[in-house]
Amino acid sequence: MTEQAPGAHHPQPRTRHSGGSQQTAAVEHVTGAQSLIRSLEEVGADTVFGIPGGAILPAYDPMMDSSKVRHVLVRHEQGAGHAATGYAQATGKVGVCMATSGPGATNLVTPIADAHMDSVPLVAITGQVASAAIGTDAFQEADICGITMPITKHNFLVTDPLEIPRTIAEAFHIASTGRPGPVLVDIAKDALQSKTTFSWPPHTELPGYRPVTKPHAKQIREAARLIVESKRPVLYVGGGVMKSGASAELKVLAELTGAPVTTTLMALGSFPDSHPQHVGMPGMHGAVTAVTALQKSDLLITLGARFDDRVTGKLDSFAPYAKVVHADIDPAEIGKNRVADVPIVGDAREVIADLIVAVQAEHDAGHKGDYRAWWKDLNRWRDTYPLGYDQPEDGSLSPQQVIERIGKLAPEGTIYAAGVGQHQMWAAHFIDYEQPSTWLNSGGAGTMGYAVPAAMGAKAGQPDRMVWAIDGDGCFQMTNQELVTCALNNIPIKVAIINNGALGMVRQWQTLFYNQRYSNTVLHSGPGNEAGEDKPRGTRVPDFVKLSEAMGCVALRCEDPAELDAVIAKANAINDRPVVVDFIVHEDAQVWPMVAAGTSNDEVMAARGVRPDFGDHADD
């Protein structure tokens, strides 16, 4: 077996054992393919999303022999990868996808990159040409380990069938511990076909991988001191808090300190939107109060966030008055974009738990922050610049209203998966996220086509929860074939197509920065669409209702605001098949607030042409 891994990190997995026994099972004589499926069962994988092909075909045969692993046959490998991601995000378990060599494997590259950017635990299993043919440009050969090395946490090329159990055990441990991420296991076809032996648990050999989870006590005490001494602190919460399952601890820390909380796009739901200390999502399209709180803050308590450019805007003007406490399980993130005054390496849950104790000790010693003046400013900004939208003057549907009503009418605990673009930002703003793992999206990579397969994976992992995919007509046309998968596998997701007939976010940029020259962003017209030629509402190509019905779904259309609630209620009531609702919305709606790319967050616009006035600010 050849291993390819970043640097000198060699993970040491914690193997899982069926039936609670830690005794080595009797050695069995099996094929490599049977060993692979048995290994997946032993590590607790219950669902695999994939599609067979020549090199991976041997692995599919033992799935017919009463395997505990459910295989979901997708229509495209990209769908398999995003479904595995949605499954992982909704369940907290490792998502698994499978593909054959060459184009099957390369079709997984986008979801692997997506999982890498968003720190999602994913194991991608690919077939490879026979070991003797590797490097010969054989039919359907691709160096998928080399291709994915920059976008995986670790990857393996397996040519010896005896190494399959160990590799799978290691892959699942690497994917799910430390900073989660994708791991690729590429297995040569002859390794799958050859006879071998199987025993569990395997002997593992990754001694150099020791993720630091427990923070340093001195750094925790220093962070607590800065918190009680600051006048304008902000808890800047990122996706790492969600990954560590630290929502309960975060709420305790927030209420103990009394500091405002802002949750990034990847952290929505980790702190209740309805909580009075929550000031919204920061960033390019963040709430004015959240953006401004970061800019005016004198202390950022950064938990599991990475100072992403979509949050910071122009980096050298970001939070100019603030000292920084930066806690992250990945030491590479600390100091990467912003120097930390107090760097803390550790798991977010353990960091927050220790901070609670340290802050309470400061309080007990008579040291407590006074944030009354800070909250006076925050509440004034929140009252003056709330999130909102205008109804179209022509009586057509407002996309924001559609998404808002979906959120209001869905039952508690509903999971929402969004595509990428305007509808993603509106879904972030106008649905209230009160629980963790109810908001799934492609944050770092910004992958169009994510929503439908991710919703499919989430529903497969959480069959008793309602799952809505909030998608755009552009995103929907990239991966909608997975609705066939949903229909045939009893995965009854619901899809809202926010159909404005255009690539909405790109069109918004053309409106604002390209003198309304709409080059190739109108989706329902042919050549010449740069002129913005339109067709009557409801006649757009393709007809999503007919398309969805052809794929085995119940399909509805809504154009009239007066019918909106009734259509959503009808969709919510159907639970035996996938449901698609084509919402024909106004094409000129735009996402606000907005910080233009490359500019300072100080230049946030509450609406087009509306620059908030925050008054003078003196650095304390």
Notes on the protein architecture:
There is one protein chain. The protein has 620 residues and is an alpha/beta fold. Helix content is 34%, strand content 16%. The strands form 4 sheets. The chain has a 7-stranded mixed beta sheet, sandwiched between helices. A 6-stranded parallel beta sheet has the order 12-11-10-13-14-15, with helices on both faces. A 6-stranded parallel beta sheet has the order 17-16-18-19-21-20, sandwiched between helices. Strand 3 (47-50), helix 2 and strand 4 form a beta-alpha-beta unit. Helix 3 (77-91) runs parallel beside helix 5 (109-117). The model is unreliable at 1-24 (pLDDT under 50).
How many domain units? Answer: 3
Largest sheet: 7 strands, mixed
What average pLDDT do the residues reach? 92
Helix content: 25-40%
CATH-defined superfamily of the largest domain: Thiamin diphosphate (ThDP)-binding fold, Pyr/PP domains
Which class of the largest domain in CATH terms? Alpha Beta
- Looking at the structure, the CATH topology of the largest domain is Rossmann fold
How many helical stretches? Answer: 23
Spatial gap, N to C terminus = 60 Å
Q: What is the level-2 CATH architecture name of the largest domain?
A: 3-Layer(aba) Sandwich
* Low-pLDDT residue intervals, each spanning 5 or more residues: 1-24
- Shape by Cα distribution: globular
Structural Rg: 25 Å
What class do helices, strands and sheet pairing give?
alpha/beta
- How many β strands by DSSP? 21
Strand content: 15-25%
Strand order of the largest sheet: 1-7-8-6-5-3-4
